[in-house]
Design goal:
The protein is of the alpha/beta class and 211 residues long. The chain has two domains: 166 residues, Alpha-Beta Complex (Lambda Exonuclease, Chain A); 42 residues, no CATH class. It is built from eight helices and seven strands; from the N terminus they run βαααββββαββαααα. Strands 1, 2, 3, 4, 5, 6 and 7 form a seven-stranded mixed beta sheet that branches. β6 and β7 form a beta hairpin. The model has no long low-confidence stretch (mean pLDDT 84).
Length: 211
């Protein structure tokens, strides 16, 4: 598989947050920064530098490059701890996130994708990982059970199809999601949603079938 065909692991998180955001970033190659992305970038500064160290019997690697040809994924893990379990060294991926735990599962899917890559690369089971949130300053442990693994594989397939078709979905404005997105001014979801509603009303008036 060519490098250009590999899906960035971060695209899975973008897709679950908003399929249009995913397409704007990974199809149209658009990006903008706001206070939220800047805070996240600052939070990642230490883990963005490749380092390897051992403390209290735990080997820790930062900015570890991951990939899986089988899954078609490529990415970088913020932190991976390697714990000795019997005669095996078991990876434990940790992803740093600004803010606090969320209602949706986008962060968990991103972390699970890292675990699947580690399993493919190293041939060992990765049953758990953790999300470290900046506001709570705590790890939230994540178990990679069958439900989360199935969801992650499904999202990988959906993102693969979106990138293959190279289509950007139309916008639907949701204040809780859109107002905190760094791509708000590039996406203009309120304007596009208003146009879609106007077009629907006009079709209803004219008695036309939708395209």
């Amino acid at each position: 598989m060519d490098d250009e065909e590999l899906i960035p692991i971060s695209a899975l998180q973008h897709y679950l947050y908003c399929p249009r955001q995913c397409a704007l970033i990974h199809v149209e190659r658009l990006w903008a920064e706001n206070v939220h992305t800047a805070a996240g970038r600052l939070m990642h500064q230490r883990s963005d530098k490749p380092l390897s160290e051992k403390r209290r019997g735990v080997h820790t690697a930062t900015a570890l490059v991951l990939g899986s040809e089988k899954l078609g994924l490529v990415g970088v893990a913020d932190v991976v701890e390697f714990h000795d379990v019997g005669d095996q060294r078991r990876p434990f991926p940790i992803e740093y996130k600004r803010g606090r735990p969320k209602a949706h599962r986008a962060d968990e899917v991103q972390l699970c994708a890292q675990a699947l890559c580690l399993e493919d690369m190293l041939g060992v089971e990765v049953p758990q990982g953790a999300l470290f949130y900046g506001q709570t300053r705590r790890r939230a442990e994540v178990t990679f059970d069958s439900e989360l693994r199935a969801l992650t594989v499904t999202v990988i397939e959906q993102v693969c199809e979106q990138l293959r078709q190279r289509k950007t979905p139309s916008a639907t404005y949701l204040a809780a999601r859109c107002d905190s997105c760094s791509l708000l001014e590039l996406c203009r979801p309120q304007l596009q949603t208003r146009r879609d509603v106007d077009a629907w009303l006009q079709r209803e008036i004219d008695g036309e079938d939708p395209p």
